[in-house]
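Handoff note, outgoing to incoming analyst
You'll be picking up this chain. Sequence as last confirmed:
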Amino acid sequence: MTRSERPASINDELVFLPLGGTGEIGMNFNLYGYGPATKRKWLAIDLGITFPDASEPGIDVIMPDPIFIEGERENLLGLVLTHAHEDHIGAVAHLWERLRCPVYATPFTAAMLRGKLAEAGLLNDVPLHEVPLGGHLQLGPFDLTFVTLTHSIPEPNAIAIRTPLGNVMHTGDWKIDDAPQIGDVTDIKTLTAFGDEGVRAIVCDSTNVLSPGRSGSEADVRKNLTALIGTLKGRVAVTTFASNLARLSTIMKAAEANGRHTVLVGRSMHKVTSAARETGYLKDVPTPVSEEDAGFLPPDNVLYLCTGSQGEARAALSRIADDSHRHIALSKGDTVIFSSKIIPGNELPIFELHNRLSERGIDVLTEKDHDVHVSGHPCRDELIQMYQWIRPELSIPVHGEPRHLLAHAELANELQVPEQLVLRNGLMARIAPGPAQVIDDVPAGRLHLDGRVLVRAGEAPLRERRQMSFAGHVVVSLVVDDDGKLLADPEVACEGIPDLEEGLSVEDTCREAADDAVSRMRKSAARDDAAVAEAARRAVRGRLRFLWDKKPPVRVLVTRV
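Most recent structure output, in case you need it:
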């Protein structure tokens, strides 16, 4: 008898707690808890990142704050990874030392994670266990089966979770593709058999719930890209998500079919293809040509496979567009194909990249012009099919913004699923026993990777950067005697602020305000450094607000001699 078959105790509960990826797309981090409220055992699924936007200057990546489960880590049985996308594994190397639990993944995901752990110096510290495709795992009260799905990366897995209080299907990211080009097709037999057992809840991807029909097949992309590349002259560059191994294979084979040699450009391209070959993929594609050797090929015989489909400033395609790449140059008459979608929030850098290429006479082709991309997430017809296989009692939409979650819940209701529960990060829901309901609200913040330092979202550094990016900043240095009398004119340094008064620089304007404020202080107050600094700060900030209607951060340094 497995633990999942043993009867539950009277106080046992099965709970679900999203700490990332619910109410947003990216940064997935989900917890399942089992047992009495005072001594639950926990299972974590995925631990990913998301990327900053313009409102988060200087931040490299963003990840979920694990503070809640840190306090429970002696009861954390393991971290299970569904697949190797950054929004599902990207935070493991950054946060594992806070969790210190075993990690479980199928071979390709494990290979990708090992590279990240090696870079972080954790390769020999993290207990990383490989699970075979379709494998089984027992972690305390959680009986887990890895179920093969299709997605835009090799080895995407749903996790079929069996517990004494009921079964849960955690889908991870998926779609239904009968010809995925790399990897196995969806394991319908296992999905339907799990549904036949009776499923208490499905925790399911919501990304494309607003899109009718189906997401399309990678086989169609291969046919379309091969035909399109055959019509082009000169050098061709194709950019896509490096993690989409089936797409990389498609592009390499399309190049070969048209007499072109593939050149991998960008660090991520090399990392992904290395992990793929290590785990038995990409055996049937030609060996890429190095960047250096590509320079000796005729233009009609080369295809550059590049990182940078989302307009990333440091990626290969951006450097090519700026004509600053060390080995690769494109010119008028060459073509760049964007075999990818625009991730919401990335519109501006992508369109700016399109324009930089176009200004140099390089043709830009996208999914809007040609059928060169399909999504890796299920559209409505595929979601309906999944519900028909699983037949859950409860639908919990995840991996989507609020509008996606609500639309997913409405779809589940239309499909006669008895219960729907829309959550946000931090809301703990009891799945069983009894009707599903929210029972707690726990901390669920964000951590920002600022260079090598992790800081909590909302802390001072980022607020100050936002303020400086909006209104510049001012530094005032004052030298005073024991009684607070100025011994020299204030020194002022300003950045990002225009001159505001005719005949006066902004530095002179601030110097005048600080001098006047300190000179008017009572002697008793002027003997206090903090009071002097605050008087000058308020005066400078007030003057700038009066003249400019903005309030830049002002820092005042007081030296008393």
